[in-house]
Amino acid sequence: MHTKTIYSSLLIGLLFSSLVYAQEKGIPITVSAFNQATSMPFSELLTSPIHPGIAVATELNYSKQPKHSRLFQTIGASYYYHRYLNQAVTVFSEMGYEYRFKPGIELSALLGVGYMRSFRNATEYAFENGSYSATKNTGTGRFAPSFSLETGYYLHPKSITSLKLFVRYQVWVEYPFSLGFIDLMPHNNLHLGVKFFIGANK
Amino acid sequence: MKKIFVVSFFALLFTACEKDEVIDPKAYSCNFDFVDNSASHPKAQQYQAKLDEIVKKGTVGIMMSVYHPNSIQWLGASGKADISNNVPMQPCMISRMGSTIKMFTATVTMMLYDENKINLDEKIAHYLKGSYIGKIQNAETATIRQLLQHSSGIYNYIQNPKFQTASMNNLKKEWHAEDLMSYAYNQDAYFASGTDVRYSNTNYILLGILIEQIEGKPLHEVFEQRIFKAFGMTKSLFASKNPVPHNIVRGYIDLYSNFKITESTYFSGWDYYTADGGLISNPYDMSLFFQKLMNGEVVNPKLLAEMLTWKTPHEQDPDFFPIEYGLGIFKMKTPKGDVYYHSGDAIGYYANMIYITSSKSVIVYAVNSNYGKLDEWVSTKKAIENILETVW
């Protein structure tokens, strides 16, 4: 309980500081749609069937006047639906490094931590008092560290509030998956997203 | 707006949960085509109590056949065949028997050998010319006998983490031989062919392709004609004929190791078309086959003796009984004595067929739940000891 409180406080603190700082230039928002897959890291880019997901996040810049590169932190939430296994909500924060090239192309790497709540999407039966009965689907908690590589394009490279389109390949691990059986499960998400600013002064 | 979002989100979570199929319990109804005298077996209560105990430990349902020569055969069951539709398990029902098919694949291979259609000591590459031969290490050097005995050294595709994650990603995918074997491509062989033994499903996929090629017909027809019909296994079929029969008991998995299970009846798609898995049967049929095999009624005694020629692995699994490898059959050294056996897993199913060498007894049991915490009382050393203690 104590750990959870600290963890929640950290996340809320990060979000708050991010939003306050961002007020000067508007709040950066990234929205991405992604395909989630259980897959070994970097083994496959496109997988089927599609397990759709969506992620929404904001960012805090650690570099005051980013030119070619910036260090930043994200905080956000995501949801995905695995058609045969589960659906999951994750809150996460990532530390990122972005390098911009002159024509507006950027490359980024992000290292993240997350807390995932996974809900089975089939009827779940719990074993109690010697027999099975349908149980409430309250979900189970998971630790979800991640590593992402991204490339994107700023539509107006000279503007600090430019719209950005990006593709992100994210590798993440679900832990614990099934302790003593399959301890951790590797996943890949392939994101297609956009970054924009809300409340920015034109 | 915020309220609408929250309500919509939870509505999505709720509606995205699929309910288990509604099945009329009558769909599972079954009978034996003989008079079942199990109730009058002198140890009927003792055997039934053992099955009930296993169910009380967390197994969803179990069927068992206990055959001792010169005694009545006991057939029993406990638990559920289908939780959602509240259908009790019965011994005449059918279930998925996974890798136990390997004993049948080996038997058919021995029949082909007996008919001079193949030579056991010829390389598999002599018969199979598919491009997969050059992509699987040791496939060019391994003989048919080495495939049967798992002494080929060929990599087991199931152990490839890329296969494990891919099958998890698409749990309803139906896998064919080359799909599965591709996960053994360019993988290091475990050892030079013939120098050790190590279990590999890839061996039996190759044998299945060989059988289909020699016989010129699909595996399910070969098994049906040569085994199921020939030896009175009226409730048995190979999955490729009908991957999920309407009356198959539902399978369940404890995927997260927490005694919370979900249905997995449609998740065994890598067990439908290849000769390393895919048997659908029941303990009575399997007992019948094992009895006849060991009596020399399926293959002649000389060929049976070849099947029962053992090789010991250099390394044993410290968590299991010491085992030795025959051709499609294993020998297990238990504290009570030696048994011959083959077990099998599918997703949500487990089965084991055991022949007690000292008494010529045959014990077969099948359950419709596995993985996670459920394996402890079904497939582990402790579980087998527990069952043998009662039925020996």
From TrEMBL, chain A:
Entry protein name: Outer membrane protein beta-barrel domain-containing protein
Organism: Flavobacterium chungangense
Taxonomic placement: Bacteria, Pseudomonadati, Bacteroidota, Flavobacteriia, Flavobacteriales
Automatic annotation (TrEMBL), chain B:
This protein's UniProt keywords: Aminopeptidase, Hydrolase, Protease
Keyword match Protein transport: no
Domain Beta-lactamase-related: from-to ranges: 51-372
Entry-linked Pfam families: Beta-lactamase
Known EC number: 3.4.11.19
Record's keyword annotation contains Hydrolase: yes
Xref: InterPro entries: AmpC-like, Beta-lactam-related, Beta-lactam/transpept-like
Any one Gene Ontology molecular-function term assigned to this protein's record: aminopeptidase activity
Alphabetized PANTHER family for the sequence: D-ALANYL-D-ALANINE CARBOXYPEPTIDASE, D-ALANYL-D-ALANINE-CARBOXYPEPTIDASE/ENDOPEPTIDASE AMPH
Protein name: D-aminopeptidase
Gene this protein is translated from: dap_1
